[in-house]
Amino acid sequence: MKRLIAFCTALIVLFSTYSTVSAAPLFKDVEDTYSAKAELDFLASKGIIKGDPTKNFDVNKEITRLEAAEMIIKSLGIETTNPPAIIFTDITPDHTSYPIIATIVDEGIMKTDENGAFNPDAPFTRGESAVFLVRAYDLKGTVKTPFVDVLADYWVSESINILQANKIATGYADNTYKPLANITKVDFAIQLARTLNPDFRKVPTTPIPEAVSCEKPSKTKKVKVNVQVTSLWHTPGIDRAVDLASIKTPVDISKWTKSMNLKQKWWLVDKTDTQALFGDEVVVLQKSGKWTKIAIKDQYVPYQKEGYPGWVPSSHLYETTTDTTNCSIAIVNAKSTTLYSDKNKKNKYIDISYTTILPVVKEDGEWLHVITPQNGVKYLPKKDAKVHKNYASVPKPTQKDIVNSAKMFLGLPYLWAGTSAFGFDCSGIIYSVYKNHGIVIPRDSFYQATKGTPVAKNDLQPGDLVFFAGNRGKGKVYHVGLYIGEGKMLHAPNSSDKVKIESISAGVYKTNYSGARRYLK
């Protein structure tokens, strides 16, 4: 009721005082000829934004949650001098903007994340913008022909359709809305002005020209990993209490590996089979309760044409219809890095591993704008990744490239089934290093030993894979190392050890040596 009374009062004031567009620059980048000058003049005349012809409005800059919250609260005319007492994990009551933030959360217009943080400096998507406006102004409506990329099962779809029905939302020339793209300051301002003043909806609108963007809608659905790393279990639901950090959403693989004692690490043998990284495309094979059996497309096994199979929590996956095949790609080549929700590094989105591959929509100074499976564009430090037109264009590595990349992980504790920089197994580290350099090899050691080119022991070169098998090298392959020269290999031995360098001609490795394969041309 507080919001409704304030909004009705605000509307009376809005429409009783607004008349014409001012004939003066509102901001340095909003002159009289600017296409949205009327909408911005309207917001300025009501005190929702403050014009200053000596400064830029930054029309194409992504608007933050706090900036949007301030505009909404001002437009609603809600008093904030006595804000409700709300506990945030990232904002204290003495924060300058606490009254605005607490009020908009109390009104149910914006909400905190799963950790209780408001993230005031984070941008938000065009889809989220629709949700905020619908909640704030209690908008209603239906549309018969929705935007082609706004699917019924998106959580933001109903709100986007309501904006579309009220002629508040304008799509692109190809009838897309791009719900996962972050909204700019001017686009939010236009939508807010149209929400408050229906006259702006009556003006014939031209669809936004097709954005210079590589992503596009698709009728084909793809399923992608939506956590930093997901472990594939041989059987669903056998996880222990100590495995919670690897099962929950979001995942914290570092916490998981550090929390296990040696016995608990050894228990994983034959319980987990492999891992998939954030953004990896997978195929759904089967569902059972809260678990989904998937196949990882980039991990070869001869018995499953779709890829390496295993069970993961369903919450670790996200189904998307965004086609990014025309986007360049960023391959993380640091041991690990962080995706941010803003370029000020105030809002961390997720930590990601070496060899995580994400589509790039823009390069901007020290940042790469990358597309996440579910939450639109996030920011990746450019120094931590290499950008290529596509995976096929990744230049093939030298022997030195492979060896030096593997050496980054010396001292990293072993993790059974691990394929991430938070913990590798023997074949996982080699699979990851080669994939990082544009070469996809089989995932497991006994399949790695069947591909590539056979190499005699006296012809070994750095970058070759050396294998070890039971029965004095004549049985099934159980271990692999990366040959680095001078009779030595880099390898991840077992759960009680770390990535290290050892001789291939000492102890059990001399006894069980079974052969070598070369994957470098």
Automatic annotation (TrEMBL):
Q: Which residues form the signal peptide?
A: 1-23
Organism encoding this protein: Psychrobacillus mangrovi
Q: Family membership, please give it.
A: Belongs to the peptidase C40 family.
What the entry lists under Pfam families is as follows: NLPC_P60, SH3_16, SH3_YKFC_2nd, SLH
Any idea which UniProt keywords this protein has? Answer: Hydrolase, Protease, Signal, Thiol protease
Q: Where is the SLH domain?
A: 23-83, 84-147, 148-206
Q: Where is the NlpC/P60 domain?
A: 396-520
- Supply the name of the protein: NlpC/P60 family protein
